[in-house]
Amino acid sequence: MGDFRPRTVWLGHPEKREQRYPRNVINNQKYNLFTFLPVLLFNQFKYFFNLYFLLLACSQFIDELRLGELYTYWVPLCLVLAITIIREAVDEIRCYLRDKEVNSQIYSKLSTRGTVKVKSSGIQVGDLLIVEKNQRVPADMIFLRTSERNGSCFLRTDQLDGETDWKLRLPVACTQRLPTAADLLQIRSYVYAEEPNIDIHNFVGTFTREDGDPPVNESLSIENTLWASTVVASGTVVGVVIYTGRELRSVMNTSNPRHKVGLIDLEVNCLTKILFGALVVVSVVMVALQHFAGRWYLQIIRFLLLFSNIVPISLRVNLDMGKMVFSWMIKKDSKIPGTVVRASTIPEQLGRISYLLTDKTGTLTLNEMVFRRLHLGTVAYGMDSMDEVQSHVFSAYTQPSHDLPASRAPAATKVRKTISSKVHEAVKAIALVHNVTPVYEANGVTDQAEAEQHYEDTCRVYQASSPDEVSLVQWTESVGLTLVGRDHSSMQLRTPTGQILNFTILQLFPFTYESKRMGIIVRDESTGEITFYMKGADVVMAGIVQYNDWLEEECGNMAREGLRVLVVSKKSLTEEQYQDFEARYVQAKLSVHDRSLKVATVIESLEMEMELLCLTGVEDQLQTDVRPTLEILRNAGIKVWMLTGDKLETATCTAKNAHLITRNQDIHIFRSVTTRGEAHLELNAFRRKHDCALVISGDSLEVCLKYYEYEFMELACQCPAVVCCRCTPTQKAQIVRLLQERTGKLTCAVGDGGNDVSMIQEADCGVGVEGKEGKQASLAADFSVTQFKHLGRLLMVHGRNSYKRSAALSQFVIHRSLCISAMQTPQCPSEPPLSPTHTPTHHTQSSSHVPGQPQPPPQRAVTHCIVDFSSACLTSDRSCDLSAAVFSSVFYFASVPLFEGFLIIGYSTIYTMFPVFSLVLDKDVKSEVAMMYPELYKDLLKGRPLSFKTFLIWVLISIYQGTIIMYGALLLFDSEFLHIVSISFTSLILTELLMVALTIQTWHWLMILGEFLSLSCYIASLVFLPNLIDIYFITTVSFLWKVTVITLVSCLPLYILKYLRTRFSPPNYSKLTT
């Protein structure tokens, strides 16, 4: 497919393409059919933990290093890999099915055979596509035709850039003039498009029709584009596809999904390295105690293999299976219905989040604007008093225009009329100063033409570039003044009495981010009056309106309530004033140099001493329980950053409304900077402020990160809340990456749109919210929720439990392996061993001895060592029998095992697996308590459940218990060495079961079942192991009391210590449970 290059695209003729273009498919998969196994195995064995066991298993193919049967090493390793492969395969298949659903969406395509259906994945560059209203645009296209009479359409782009404003798009003039859409195939025309790039706000291209007379050439800009992932908001559009697949603007703004590894996996990997270091040290010490005799290097390797249980392979199996259980619990939680776990490898990450980065539109808000407040200075109207406004508007159009003279009217009437006229003027201004267009659609009863002719209310919908505008016009309709018609030059309003008011639009000054205001000049056709109406942000309108003493105070009050405040004003113009203005305005627009500055200067000449009419307060409705959820996250020690593509004022209002920024919290709005010097000055000003929220735009953020990345991130991380507005998708991902690098803390990104995919994939945990605008974010996320409020329970309950359970499970599995390894490790004898060449006569076996049967050692061997069999076992061509081999492994530093391979495998599986794994059901507090006291989550951010301190404690416990069990068995056995195995192994099993009971904090019936099941499996298996355990001896009273004593000595002190700690230094959660 080569590099990105410009292209010439012929309309309706994909076969004329000059180069190969990528297929139009969405692919969120990490692997394909050929890379699945190689990449998966590489990702598994690049970590020390798995590589160690691979080398361990491979070493058993060498005869001199073999310690047991091959299955004792390969079966556990293959089991670990099988579980991982199955889990990853299931995740990949699910991801494939989700992608297939999106790629299989059907669209209409114009062809020489007429209109045909085509899948999204089958769309090619050059295809002429028909996209209906409310349908997702499947590929980047040039806009050719629309069904709208006004020759334009609106796009919803919040899935692309995060902006809630609808975008106006214009078709190519040449193709819009064609009689029918089918004529597009009859003309000879092409589009020249620039090379694919990441910029979603600009486009350069040309449209050429060769068969015209003369040939037609039109320039193309961003206004002529329909980018993929946007949604057509009005009419039906026809476009020609210019980019597909990986060349889409939306795809180029997203990063490839990375393989995420949980922090607990990395910590366990680090602990296994420490254990391996201990394993090497112990092995070298064992050989050193033999004075490095014989082939000592082989002995070191054999000791490494012998003590390999120190690094437990079952740890990985237990952790992976535990994660699957945690994922299943999340899915089945009835209090967060619809939650989906798409990455089952990192559920415990949810328990250690330090930074939460969230989108605004559709994530925190519903993107539904509601009019809340009208303030006239002397009186304010809320939602509960809108009927008064309605009555004032009604009276303004029902009473005669010439009322009683003021001198004859009572004082009360004068006041009432003054308020009534003020309300009427305010409502009229709000109904006129906007860019809203009413559109009429057929509703099954009335067709479109009839609805448009009679202004049918049931068929009318409003279209605008901003939902704020629509909410204002809908409010004026609710109080009696309805916008029923509009085109480029006129506007029609309907009064409560049904009268139609006609206004001519003389000039329109659209809203810009620089001016922060919009204006309109209209002429009332009934009276001929010319009026200039303007509305905008209070910061700019304060200097435009006439002096007053209430504007600043009331704007502050409404902003603190989380309302978006607009100041509405008007100015009456005479015909002469307007003609003078128009002449200067036209002259300014014809200027070649400094056109925008001259135009702005002419407009500003009108913006003086305007009459302040009212303030409006509009609220972007928050999703359910957003405020309490953010409060929970804040109390849990999680810092919340809002990253949005929306404008600064909107983002700031939402942050206040959602209580992301608290009422008494100072806000530092980072002013716009473009140079290094400006950024330096602004950062110094910001540094002098303490404990204040930061609001910064994407442009200023880019400058700061370019020159002062470290300083900016250091200051921003100290803020209780950060709002980044006008952010591109790439910037969102960059902020996540910088937080990870600078703080080393875990991040969680939450979003609902295609513009959030990069951020979600970059974060340690990505959460997608399934909203109205599609599933692109939720498909790319690790976890998918239906509402933002579910995030609280996902983190506080499931994240916390998953992390604590994973930490307990991993440390207990390490303890289980260290225990048996401590028993395996030979103790230093009271006398040094003799030379390997010296063989005492009392150790010569009799000819009557049956190989494989245990032989009683001399009694004095209990108290001191006499002979070293290690060299004999290594140099002899025949293998040592069980008696000599096990006996020498315990007393003479020989590298042979204490327990047979079956016992070791059984110990890690059926004998202890069920109770140990049941720790995944344990919990310290109920879920209701965890939600009520989010401060409990804060304790986890320090990583205390799994730390070097807790690891060392478990190591000491393991050494203590292993030593007690081994010495106890040595001191209490009688004449048969086989009894040592019986006593020590039984004590070991019972000790592990009791230790599980000691660790559990909340019992579950499956835990009790696991304990009894494991004990039953052990007792039942004794019947089938006569060569390993003396079945007759274990039924004696002697065996029972010896095992009881050893088990009590190994466990009772730990129970006492736990009681003392709970009594005198209880953990935080225990105070809540009581």
UniProtKB/TrEMBL annotation:
Cofactor: Mg(2+)
An MF annotation (GO) of this entry: ATP hydrolysis activity
Claim: Magnesium is one of the keywords in the record: yes
The protein's enzyme class: translocase
Record's keyword terms, sorted: ATP-binding, Golgi apparatus, Lipid transport, Magnesium, Membrane, Metal-binding, Nucleotide-binding, Translocase, Transmembrane, Transmembrane helix, Transport
Source organism, top-level taxon: Eukaryota
GO CC annotation: endosome; plasma membrane; trans-Golgi network
Residue ranges annotated for the P-type ATPase C-terminal domain, each copy included: 779-824, 885-1066
Residues annotated as catalytic: D359
Pfam families: E1-E2_ATPase (PF00122), Hydrolase (PF00702), PhoLip_ATPase_C (PF16212), PhoLip_ATPase_N (PF16209)
Cross-referenced NCBIfam families: ATPase-Plipid, ATPase_P-type
Listed name of the protein: Phospholipid-transporting ATPase
Organism: Pogonophryne albipinna
